[in-house]
Amino acid sequence: MSDNERSQTGEFSTFYLGGELFGIDILDIHEINKQFETTRIPDVPDEIEGILNLRGQIVTVFDLGKKLGLHDNKSEAKERRNIVVDSKGEYIGLIVDKMGDVISAERSRLEPVPANLGGIQGRFFHGILKTDNKLVGILNIDEILKEKE
Amino acid sequence: MNNSLNSKSNEKNIKDEPEQKVKVSLLESLMNLAGELVLCRNQLMQGISKTDMKSIESSGQRIDLITSELQDAIMKTRMDKLASIFDRFTENVDGVGRNIDFTVKGRDVELDKTVLEGIEEPLQNLLENCIEFGIEQAEERKNKGKSENGTIQIKAFQDAGQININFFHDGVDEKGKIVTKEIVSQIEEIGGVLETNSELKSAYEYQIKLPLTLAIIPSQITSVGDEQYAIPQANLSELIRIPANDVKKRIETVGDAEVVRLRGELLPILNLGAILGVEKSWLDESGNKHPERRVSISDRRSKKYTENGNVVSLKKPENDLKERKPEDRRKNSSKAINIAVVHAGNFKYGLVIDELYDSEEIVVKPLGRNLKKYKTFAGATIMGNGKVALILDILNIALNQNLATVEESNSIAKSIEEKNKTNSVKESLVLFKNLETEYFAAPFESVERIERIPADEIEVLSKRKVVQYRGGALPLFELSDTLNLSKLPEREQLEVIVFNVNNRQFGLMVTPPVDTIEVVVSVDDSTLKQSGVKGSMILNNHTTLLVDLAELSALFFKSYEVE
Q1: Which residues 262-281 in chain B show a CB within 8 A of chain A?
Q2: Contacts of residue A5, Cβ cutoff 8 Å, sequence gap at least 6
């Protein structure tokens, strides 16, 4: 479903990375796992946690914090979760430090993002949501997972 | 959340999903098999709840059979006919409008979709190349005495679990213009091979053999460190195990690469653990894993060739502990080596792995788009215990490691052997010592025997030492008699090398060990030269004096006469 067809009101699943709050459109999320035993792949960059057997499918799992360039790994193992997203028809896992709430918001309220937000490239965001007293960076997963040509 | 997800996937179905035709009879087979599976499953569940082993075993067997049948039936639903590709080819050739008679046989042969998709491009390229570079123009053909129209024929048939596609033409074949390297690797990527039929004269046939399906392949499961890896059976030639004692014998070094001698061939070997950056491990008798600390495969000294093919050493003296690097020390010194001999494209090499497991049929799962660039792996599979095993891409591993092809390896081996034969003639030398640190060598061909003589058997006649030897008296000398060296210490047993030089026999008293070596003799005759010594060489890392036996024996016997 392209962005144009999504309804005006969106729901976003939020989570913490290095103490900051981020969100992903719930429509892009397939499932969220607590237990995940990944198989290491030798000789690949740190950001790739490994691959996972998801009921018969091989899913690549990334450490989202490392993928975004954040180095502050404050998470406790038992709070970490694997968010399995649907990116361009493929299931990919993203490990986050801790889950937050699901928030509802009008998509029109997403504010544009500067070229660099807290050390993360602006193009990785769809926009920023200001809710209550929190700032949530809504992530563009397809862009983050894009491979360099 | 559920509702929105469902509507999203439904929309996707309507727009994007391709459709396929399947025979009704095949669908009915599938229904029946599913039904049988359900019955069997019920039996199994009952057996489990009652812990009835017999019932569980018989259900298990039935399920094994049904699963295989299901696998076959489902595979069949994924099959498509070659007609789709062949018909397009026929159209193309007609469209080109040249002097070509083009026929296809086997339009009805069925292939798994994945293989079909993979073979289309290489076949098309082969056809185009043949039209452009293969079939000559009508005029040229007439001059050569050939028929005006060239013939191109593609024939497909199934044989022994493989799909054969034979490509035939009666044009010309300049090396590499029709069957390009690209075509060959495209075919190999889908697990196939291309062979040229060399039996034909002035006609050419390329035989392509393809697996029935890419989805499920037989493979050999191996492990390195904590993880399991699968080697496709199609790439596996054989498995070798080299016992610990044979390691230094069979593993040699050429330049800085390690090779193993396999029935006369030199096979380059790669250490899978090193390639993957994984620490190797080995299992002890009770099945516990320990990290492998050996750095190079042939830890202890084995035959070494320098780049220009000279042998440096054969054996190392055993009491040489101080030269071992810490990395070479291992917990368990008796360690056999497992090698999987693999081949892909023009490469053949050995892969050193930790442990070997069973041969298994595995379902090939592709790796995600972010992992496609790590060419070491061709995909992944899920093992019976739910764990993921990566499938090795044998061709890419060879390419990444800059491995020499089979041709190149063999020509290196040949040049080494020829070098050793022709311009540098190797000689056999006998090695011995005077005092503990004085190393000597002499031509082995002059050695008659090596004896150990009790000191009390030596007789002294007019200050000359002799010993009873084979019915006669053998004069005994030591190097200090004529050379500027220290006398040998008093011993109870004497090591004596019996030489025969210019038909005169004598015994040389030496300090053991007495050893032999085969080397290309290149003597430094400037330093350390004296009468009776030809010069010096470095052998086994020691400065060794090569004696001139003729001079030496002359000096020995002269000393007799003087006295």
Answers
A1: 276-278
A2: none
